Amino acid sequence: MRTQVGIIGAGPAGLLLSHLLHLRGIESVVLESRSYDYITSRIRAGLMEQNTVDLLNEVGLAKNLNKVALPHDGVQFTFDGVLRRINMQELIGRRVTIYGQQLIVKDMADIRERVGGEILYEAEATQISNLESKPSITFIHSGQEQTLECDFVAGCDGFHGLSRPSVPGNLRKDFDRVYPFGWLGLLISAVPPSEELVYCHSPTGFALFSMRSEEVTRAYLQVRPNESLENWSEDRIWSELRGRLGQHDGLSLVEGEILQKVITPMRSWVSEPMQYGNLYLAGDSAHIVPPTGAKGMNLAIADVCVLSRGLIDFYQNNNWHYLNSYSETCLRRVWRAEHFSWWMTTMLHRFYDANPFDHKRQIAELHTVFDSDAGSRLVAENYAGLPLEPWQP
Ligand code: FAS
Ligand code: PHB
């Protein structure tokens, strides 16, 4: 098999890149190790930045999103017995939108299929070769080992993929921060406590109340690291959700059936550089953020805009400039998102080894940020998202 751009991974990064290249007549093949049903039903990210939604509208990927997504002007925070709301629309003229990652993945996969895009499901890439000349990807599909020859490889295969390890270890620098807690993610058949997201700092730990629709709550509870689900009975879950939300006008916790519960660890991670030879890493293959800042999926989309512009400029104008500066361009925004995600995480979570001074200092930091317009504006600008690079030259 041969194509212009070999894309490993059909997550938000891989599928968006395949679509953008198609819009400018550039061929690609997407290799995805899982099935279509798996990737279009996996519950993961939920919040989109304004720039992400604008981009999806610009490139014809927002038809279903515009029908069912939930746009929010504001976001709420509870701490130290108070409830604070940041009105992003009023402060900076931008908002955020709730639209489950599995939905945008389905939208992109279906649109690619409709226009004849080549996505091979249950096709696991096992090796990338000749990265400094004409690369090839070896993969297993239908029990057969096959090879995809290409000009470029886009490593969109997430944190556990093989793209990042294909960058020689002596050329790669990894930056890592593991947090001393995880999140218990819950999908609950119940009306959310508020129409907007509520981030809660409490003496027994962090909680987040998001949603997937007006009748389905997506909630998260901070848990100890390496926690097991067996320790979280339904009674304990409801007791902690209620306790961490607290009593505030306008917020009411409605109980309902818990449809799913999963524990995920929390870490910050960046691997530099994000390119080697004709391999370009985009999304979780190059970086991970704690989900407190809701940056993971948005950052993957931001990387793809930079890579798409570089590839289009190469094929249309034989210009290498944007490809040569790909890693440097992406990392400026990646590190801003890493900082914001770290800041929101350390401000809002309880550190189990913190002493009384640390607890009081943390409360003071929350008041410093959320009692002031300047602090609220800073949170709003980063939460609603920084500008994206153009996706085409
Ligand atoms: P993805 O991981 O989405 O996609 C990579 C794809 O590559 C996968 O489909 C995988 O099957 C495939 N793949 C891997 N190895 C392969 C190989 N060898 N061959 C072929 N295919 C291969 N972000 C948020 O903003 N908010 C959240 O609440 C949130 N919750 C999350 C919960 C979980 C459990 C996880 C794991 C992540 C969560 N994230 C969240 C982060 C997540 O949304 C990512 O940022 C986003 O999926 C990144 O997209 P991609 O870079 O496309 O990687
Ligand atoms: C979600 O809806 O899954 C979500 C929203 C905001 C976050 C994390 C997760 O910060």
Record the SSE blueprint.
Blueprint: E1 5-8, H1 12-23, E2 28-31, H2 36-39, E3 47-48, H3 50-58, H4 63-68, E4 70-72, E5 74-79, E6 82-87, H5 88-92, E7 96-98, H6 101-114, E8 118-120, E9 123-129, E10 136-141, E11 144-149, E12 152-155, E13 173-189, E14 198-200, E15 207-211, E16 217-223, H7 234-245, E17 257-272, E18 275-276, E19 279-281, E20 287-288, H8 296-317, H9 321-324, H10 326-348, H11 356-370, H12 373-383
Parallel strand pairs: 1-2, 1-12, 2-8, 5-14, 12-19
Antiparallel strand pairs: 3-7, 4-7, 5-6, 9-10, 10-11, 13-16, 13-17, 14-15, 15-16, 17-20, 18-19
Helix pairs in contact: 1-6, 1-8, 8-10
Overview of this structure, please?
The protein has 393 residues and is of the alpha+beta class. It has a domain at 5-71 and 96-175 and 267-351: FAD/NAD(P)-binding domain. The chain is 35% helix and 28% strand. It has helices at residues 12-23, 36-39, 50-58, 63-68, 88-92, 101-114, 234-245, 296-317, 321-324, 326-348, 356-370, 373-383; strands at 5-8, 28-31, 47-48, 70-72, 74-79, 82-87, 96-98, 118-120, 123-129, 136-141, 144-149, 152-155, 173-189, 198-200, 207-211, 217-223, 257-272, 275-276, 279-281, 287-288. The model has no long low-confidence stretch (mean pLDDT 97). The structure holds arabino-flavin-adenine dinucleotide and P-hydroxybenzoic acid (PHB).
Defining key terms:
35% helix, 393 residues, binds P-hydroxybenzoic acid, six-stranded mixed sheet, binds arabino-flavin-adenine dinucleotide, FAD/NAD(P)-binding domain
